[in-house]
Amino acid sequence: MSGRFARALAGEPLAVPPIWLMRQAGRYQARYQALRARHSFEALCRTPELSAEVALGAVLDFDFDAAILFSDLLFPLEALGMRLSYDDGPPKLDGPLTLERVRQFRPLEDAAARLVFQRDAMAATRAELPREKGLIGFVGGPWTLFVYAVEGTHAGALARAKSSLDLYRAFADRIVPLLKENIRLQLDGGADVVMVFDTAAGELAPDAFGRDIGPDLAALARAFPKQLGYYAKGVQAAHLAASGWHDAREGPVPWAGVGLDWHWDLAKALTANGRTGFVQGNFDPSRLLATGRQLEDDIARFVAPLRGLSPEARRGWICGLGHGVLPGTPEASVRTFVNRVRESFA
Ligand code: CP3
């Protein structure tokens, strides 16, 4: 691997940043819709050749610098014994989660064996991917998976999840070891880096983030030093500071980098004192629903402060969105984003 993505991960100064987008393969794409008309979402995920075709389709359509495994982060819940269906619309889990059900979860080895399809999908993607492109794996953060297991969705106040900390502890003791196996399978399949997507983490107060879930996140990062990235939606610097990101006894948690949502000042994050690792982000995905003049202006405003930084200062920047591409996004807007960013730094 020698392309822009690998060089950004290695911390090399680059004129033009690598670009990939969360949810870059999906419903906004005509190519995806055509495949989806013939196969269920689960079949696309579980059949390595189809998963690879979807992941590669996004790279072919938009010339992204990396492919991301086409799969879903809820599969480990199914592997442990919850029933999961994607029949029509949003995923459905047969909640609610209880202590009794956690006790009935499958043993680690049985559960991990049910995730081997992700290694095979990753390997099938790697086999077809041009050498200069990167390959990204992903798992869900333990808290985000808990929220789905308890609430069935990530919506509303999350009161049940937040008021069930004993249940979270029991759940985390089972899911964290499984996530480690899941990550190992994806690395075995050829992932260059694995993202931990923690979409619900920002719903927690900073001290709760640090105390209740920080140690689980640190355990994942320490198991795979400099191979994992962490994306959380809605967190602030106070969350990251409270999480033992810089543990006085054990030293800094060895993340490869972080993904930031659009609330962050990206130029400031890139030039923060003591930054190590990549920073991915963070154009607001809602703005890609615009076309024409507004889109051009929005991209120009996003890029301007970053153009003000030297390639040295923005080492490790991986250009992307603050969250996933939204359904209904015009493909032309995604193409415009990629082209304008590249032209701005060429
Ligand atoms: O291109 C990529 O980013 C890779 C594939 C990917 C999917 N889901 C495909 C998908 C990834 C990385 C995910 C992660 C994911 N899945 C997250 C975390 C990141 C985020 O966006 O917040 C979460 C919370 C899920 C759980 C999930 N899966 C939800 C809430 C839904 C339905 C709602 C939605 O936005 O799609 C899914 C289904 C899903 N996952 C689809 C796709 C393309 C749609 C399935 C379909 O074709 O009907």
Radius of gyration: 19 Å
In whole angstroms, the N-to-C terminal distance is 21 Å
Which stretches are poorly predicted, pLDDT < 50 over at least 5 residues?
none
User: What is the overall shape?
Assistant: globular
How much of the polypeptide forms β-strand, as a percent range? 5-15%
Widest sheet: strand ordering: 1-4-5-6-9-10-11
Strand count, sense and closure of the main sheet?
7 strands, parallel
Q: Give the helix level as a range of percent.
A: 40-55%
Taken in chain order, the helices and strands follow as HHHHEHEEHHHEHHHEHEHEEEHEHEH
**DSSP summary: helix tally:** 16
Describe the structure.
The protein has 346 residues and is of the alpha/beta class. It has helices spanning 4-9, 30-36, 41-46, 48-62, 75-80, 99-103, 108-113, 116-128, 142-151, 159-162, 165-188, 206-223, 237-242, 266-270, 292-307, 331-345, and strands spanning 66-68, 84-85, 92-93, 134-140, 193-198, 228-232, 246-247, 251-252, 257-259, 278-283, 317-321. It is built from 16 helices and eleven strands. A seven-stranded parallel beta sheet has the order 1-4-5-6-9-10-11. The model has no long low-confidence stretch (mean pLDDT 95). Bound molecules: coproporphyrinogen III (CP3). Coproporphyrinogen III is lined by residues 22-27, 36, 41, 68, 70, 72-74, 90-91, 138, 197, 199, 324.
